[in-house]
Amino acid sequence: MPIDFQKIQFLKSAAMLTQLPQDTGSEVAFVGRSNAGKSSALNAIAGIKKLAKVSNTPGRTQLINIFQADAQHRLVDLPGYGFAAVPQEIKLRWQQTLAAYLEERASLRGLILLMDSRHPMKDLDENFVVWSARRQLPLYILLTKADKLSHSAGLEVLRKVASMLETLHPEATCQLFSATHKIGIREARDQVERWLK
After folding, report:
1. H or E element: which one contains 124?
2. What is the per-residue pLDDT for 93?
3. Rounded distance between C-alpha atoms, residue 106 and residue 53, angstroms
4. Confidence of residue 56 (pLDDT cuts 50, 70, 90)
5. Distance in angstroms (rounded) separating the CA atoms of residues 173 and 139
6. How many CB atoms lie within 10 A of CB 167?
7. Mind listing the domains of the chain with CATH numbers?
8. Listed residue (67, 95, 70, 68) closest to 81, CA to CA
9. CB 140 within 8 A of CB 191
10. DSSP E strands, the chain
C-alpha cells in the first residue's frame, strides 16, 4: 500500500526521547541548519501547506515534532543545528537530544538532510554527513532554495556536492529542491516513501 501523504497530520512535540511515540514502525527524519528550510520542505513533500510551522526566524523548531500518516509511518522534524537566536545552554541540549535520537531510535529508516543550495556543505553539514556515514545511517540531501540559482549554477552545486559525497558518505545521494517553485518534490517524496515502506 502506498503512503497517503494527504493523511499526514501533526501528532505531538517532544522535548525528550521519552516523550516520543512507541519505537515501532518506520520514521524518516528531516534535519539541517536552522535556516535551511526544513519545515517548508516537509510541507511541500507532504503536499500540505501548513503541516509544519514555517518561521522567518531560524531556530524556532526547538522540539522534535512528529507527524504521522498512520500508526506505523511517521515524519520527524528535528531541531535545526547551527545558527539560532537562542542561549548556548539550549543549543547544547538540542545537540544532545538530536544525537540521542539519531543513535537510539530503532524505527528511523533514513535522514533527509537539507542544505541551502547557495551555501552547501558548511562545516556543520560536512560533520553531520561524516557522522551519519560512520553510523551507517541512510542519507538523502536536498539542496534547497534551488530557484535562487540559475540552471547552470544549480547543476554545478549538485555536481560539487555529489563529488564530496563520494568521499564523505558514498551511499548518500543528493538532489536540487525548491519548495516554492516545486523543484524536486516528486523525487523527494518517492525517497521518503521508499524508506517508510
Report:
1. helix 123-134
2. 76
3. 26
4. low
5. 7
6. 10
7. 5-196 (3.40.50.300)
8. 95
9. yes
10. 9-14, 26-32, 64-70, 73-77, 108-116, 139-144, 173-176
Is pLDDT above 90 for 60?
no
pLDDT digits (tens, 9 = 90+) for 23-48: 999 999 999 987 888 889 999 999 99
Whole-angstrom distance, CA of residue 20 vs CA of residue 178:
30
Q: In angstroms, what CA-CA distances link 45 with 51, 52, 56, 142, 180?
A: 10, 11, 20, 11, 11
DSSP 118: T
Average pLDDT, the chain: 90
Do 72 and 87 contact (CB within 8 A), yes or no?
Answer: no
Cell of residue 61, nine digits:
523548531
* φ, ψ of residue 52 in degrees (nearest 5): -105, 140
What's the whole-model pTM score? 0.92
Distances (CA, A) of 175 to 5, 54, 124: 21, 22, 19
Assigned C-alpha cell, 29? 527524519
**Residue 15 and residue 65 in contact, taking contact as beta carbons nearer than 8 Å:** no
Q: Kindly state the cell numbers that stand for 105.
A: 531510535
* 83 has a pLDDT exceeding 60: no
